[in-house]
Specification:
This is Chromosomal replication initiator protein DnaA. It is found in: Cytoplasm. Oligomerizes as a right-handed, spiral filament on DNA at oriC. The protein is of the alpha/beta class. The protein folds into 4 domains: about 100 residues, DnaA, N-terminal domain (GMP Synthetase, Chain A, domain 3, 2-Layer Sandwich); about 180 residues, P-loop containing nucleotide triphosphate hydrolases (Rossmann fold); about 70 residues, Helicase, Ruva Protein, domain 3 (Orthogonal Bundle), CATH 1.10.8; about 90 residues, DnaA protein, C-terminal DNA-binding domain (Chromosomal Replication Initiator Protein Dnaa, Chain: A, Orthogonal Bundle), CATH 1.10.1750. It is globular, with a radius of gyration of 27 Å. About 10% of the residues have low confidence.
């Protein structure tokens, strides 16, 4: 009897542990969404210094209190004073059972005394401080509080940046900008939608430039943070110091430049800074979600400076690039295996941006590890419903047939005809292959859309095109072009 009771208790504890693990996964997923939103609101610099180090603790369902932890007392007090209301509201929106948040030092972390500035503007030695909170180097904070150089994310390097047709120009331009020799163009303007790799390239430039010029000075910030620093210096009558420090950098990296729209005084200061740095042969890189000409409310002189160098466009990643990115991320999870059909499914359905794509993979693997399940297509469909539904654009077989016929210049009726000429059969087989890859339709359903053909005919076509893509570069190129057209 005692053994049965003990076994029952162990099973109950196992279920409780599993529920806690699942709760942790869900909280982590919610925090990823909240953190991404705060990054857009606050800018990269503030987010990296204060929001990114936050660790999500447990949720007390009785009181509705969610614990948020930071590595030092200084950082906990700072976040509580400045971001508590914003964090609380974001969590209440994301998860209704959260009624309040509690911000404190992570249990087990040694508390560090509040940081004080010496009269010469340097921080005292801060033994035991968490590295993620030491983004500002020892000599980068003056009496006005102006930050001149921030820590770069060590994971965002050129080696970790996966290239394809969509981003190879921007990547090559970024590498040229970071190279030891003087670049042929400056400034470099990176243009791309959210989550396509602009910030990754900015950090990569910083890392590579520092390797080539170890004693150089770099300033990385968002345009929004630039304006905050500018206004603070203006209010404190420290504009001379602000200008002097800003123009002393060897490399200026400004993210989300679209957020400087409409700020006339900040625009003017940025314009003078660009002119001063360019005159001294310094390097400048800007990133935005739109081309310079599409920046409404920007002064014409500043517009001309932003576009006078090279504007490198980062296109939306095609399915091949998305697949390559997913495969590159799998090395972090070895020896866990992720089947090819799961990789293909994620690459095919999560198309809005790379950040969501990698986030979906991370969430799926975390869930599988915590629950002891194997990663499978069924698990992906069950656990990523929100991400998948937000990304899924329904491509129809009719749309595929129309696109293939235009590409190969054949009549639409040939998709259902009985003709066996090679000029007709191959495009028809390509269309069947694309219908299987891009739609959820079964083989029999696809066959019916192609003149009532048997499902075995569709299977043969799909396998044939798959094989031809590995052996025939022209066929692979045709399929890639059609995929880009259909997914755009």
């Amino acid at each position: 009897m005692g053994k049965l009771t003990e076994q029952a208790g162990m099973k109950r504890k196992g279920r409780e542990d599993l529920m806690e693990d699942l709760e942790a996964v869900n909280l982590a997923a919610d925090w990823a969404d909240i953190s991404q939103g705060l990054r857009k609101d606050l800018g990269q610099q503030l987010h990296s210094q204060w929001i990114k180090p936050i660790q999500v603790g447990a949720l007390d369902r009785d009181t509705g209190t969610l614990d948020l932890y930071l590595p030092t007392q200084f950082s906990a007090d700072w976040v509580r004073d400045r971001f508590s209301d914003r964090l609380s509201l974001a969590w209440k929106i994301a998860r209704g059972e959260v009624r309040q948040i509690a911000i404190s030092v992570h249990p087990g972390r040694r508390k560090v005394a509040d940081l004080q500035l010496h009269s010469d503007g340097r921080r005292p030695a801060n033994d035991g401080a968490d590295p993620s909170m030491m983004a500002i180097s020892a000599d980068t904070l003056n009496d006005s509080g102006f930050t001149s150089s921030v820590g770069l994310d060590p994971s965002l390097t050129f080696a970790a940046f996966v290239t394809g047709e969509a981003n190879v120009l921007a990547c090559n331009a970024a590498q040229r900008m970071a190279a030891p020799e003087k670049p042929q163009f400056s400034p470099l303007y990176l243009k791309g939608a959210t989550g396509q790799g602009k910030t990754h390239l900015l950090h990569s430039i910083g890392h590579s430039f520092l390797q080539a010029h170890p004693r150089s000075r770099i300033f990385y910030c968002s345009a929004e943070r630039f304006m905050v620093e500018f206004v603070q210096a203006l209010k404190q009558n420290q504009m001379i110091e602000f200008k002097g420090r800003l123009r002393s950098f060897d490399l200026l990296l400004v993210d989300d430049i679209q957020f400087i729209i409409g700020k006339a005084s900040a625009q003017e200061e940025l314009l003078y800074t660009i002119d001063a740095l360019l005159a001294e042969g310094k390097r400048l890189v800007f990133a935005a979600d739109r081309a310079p000409q599409a920046l409404d409310g920007v002064e014409p002189r500043l517009l001309s400076r932003l576009s006078m160098g090279l504007v490198a466009d980062i296109q939306a990643a095609d399915i091949e690039l998305r697949r390559k990115i997913l495969v590159s991320k799998l090395t972090r999870f070895a020896p866990l295996e992720v089947p090819d059909d799961v990789i293909d499914f994620l690459a095919r359905t999560i198309t809005r941006n790379i950040r969501e794509l990698v986030g979906g993979l991370n969430k799926l693997i975390a869930y599988a590890q915590l629950t002891g399940q194997e990663v499978s297509l069924q698990l992906a469909e069950e656990q990523l419903t929100d991400i998948l539904s937000a990304n899924r654009r329904r491509i129809t077989i009719d749309e595929i047939q129309r696109t293939v016929c235009q590409f190969y210049r054949i009549d639409r009726s040939e998709m259902s005809s009985k003709r066996r000429a090679r000029a007709v059969v191959r495009p028809r087989q390509v269309a069947m292959y694309l219908a299987k890859v891009l739609t959820p339709r079964s083989y029999p359903e696809i066959g019916r859309k192609f003149g009532g053909r048997d499902h075995s005919t569709v299977i043969h076509a799909v396998r044939l095109i798959e094989d031809l893509r590995t052996r025939d570069a022209d066929m692979d190129g045709d399929v890639r072009s059609l995929l880009r057209q259909l997914e755009s």
